[in-house]
Amino acid sequence: MKDFLGQNFILRSKTAEILYHDYASKMPIFDFHNHLSPEEIYRNENYKTITELWLKGDHYKWRAMRAAGVDERYITGDASDYDKFFKWAQTVERLPGSPLYHWAHLELKIYFGIDKPLSLKTAEEIYDQCNTLLSKPEFTPVGFLEKSNVKALCTTDDPFDSLEWHQKLSEIDLPFRVLPTIRPDKILHIGNKHWAGWVEKLAESCKCNIDSYESLKGALTESARRFKAVGCVVSDIGFEKFMYTRSDSADDNAASSIFSRALEGQPLSETEVEIFESDLLLFLGELYCDMGFCMQLHIGAARNVNTNLFNKLGADVGGDNIGLPTDTVKLGWYLDDLELRGKLPKTILYCLNPSDLPAMTSLAVSFCNGDCPGKVQTGSAWWFNDTEFGMRSQLRESAIAGLLSPFVGMVTDSRSLSSFARHEYFRRILCDMLGEMVENGEYPYDIETLGSLVQDVCYNNAVSYFVGN
User: Fold this and answer.
1) What pLDDT score does 215 carry?
2) Which of 139, 158, 177 is the last residue of a domain?
3) Is there a contact between 151 and 157 (Cβ–Cβ < 8 Å)?
4) pTM for this prediction
5) Comparing C-alpha atoms, which of 67, 129, 122 is closest to residue 98?
6) 304 in the same domain as 206
7) Cα three-residue angle 255-259-262, rounded to 5 degrees
8) pLDDT per residue over 178-191, tens digit each?
9) Cβ(283)–Cβ(223) below 8 Å
10) Which of 83, 189, 280, 457 is placed for a possible disulfide with 79 were both Cys, Cβ 3.0 to 4.6 Å?
11) Mean pLDDT for the chain overall
């Protein structure tokens, strides 16, 4: 029996151990998709308690606590940090097999040097020990990022964001870069009831008047230029349902008319929404290609399925779910229209419904060419798939499709500064999978070649893909 979370945690063969300890473990991190606050990093203030660090905005933990029968007062309510932590510790005891169990204990070990399992019996000791350390100068946002060996991270930002904190971060000496990611969901999804207000915010940020479809595209172009000026290298777009009508049937005139009607508050049909979004989506892909931005597409999240929870607490509180399978034919049309124009940017496809993974991976390979390795590829296992099983599935599918070697690797997709422990989790799984291939005779015992592949997937590929050599 192995020690709990010991040196060879998840590593089930000697080959896996060598690959992890000699090649993966010391590699830096380029985290190209997360939801960290640039203001929080800039202010660089100590956390008051481990509860503030762990539970303040982590809807992964909130879902688990609700499932364990914890009252909302101890999750997002007015209970004390001490009481909330104890309820979380009580929940952790009930999580064997959950990635949350592994992540929590990896974070305790990596950042706080704590090897003990978290439980009701150890909760008070661990709470006090963490809080004592959190008061020290090195336990700040910058300290956590340095401890994690992060060299670059990309936040997620609306196109009308002022980028004030990114600008301030670019002006101070840090051992890592904090880069913005432009995410135009609120402008693209014209069927949302708040859409007109978000267009107004975009106009304010660009100091312009948006009264036509052309002026909207002009404002989005100006926004992209602002982002590029402070280091942006990647975009992101999220979809509950990917919709696309080919460009030969969705022209600027139709999109312009739909824009004007929406700005006046007139209701739109689903067909009109699809026509507008298709046209603007094509424009955005071309824009990002011209700007040199890589494009991420996150597809398949069913948002706010619990209406009572949404009405009480709002979005991003743990009420989202895996949505319907993606229409990969329409996704292929979109990529093809960009390719036909010579405007297909480097693109990463993320699917939340795991049934999409084989089709999406094979689709990505169809649009790879000599521009760069893995120009279009599937991203790391996302959200509900961010588990050992989900990561292995994504890695295996990439290997089957011939895309493993240029894969750009893991992202935290998190709001927590301690969540970079997930990169270690991923790296152990990667090394174990490759080690298993060697042990099973599926690949020769060529440690130098496999070690180089591991280091590329852990870090080097992301640097080449997003910022060049």
Assistant:
1) 97
2) 139
3) no
4) 0.96
5) 67
6) yes
7) 135
8) 999 999 999 999 99
9) no
10) 83
11) 96
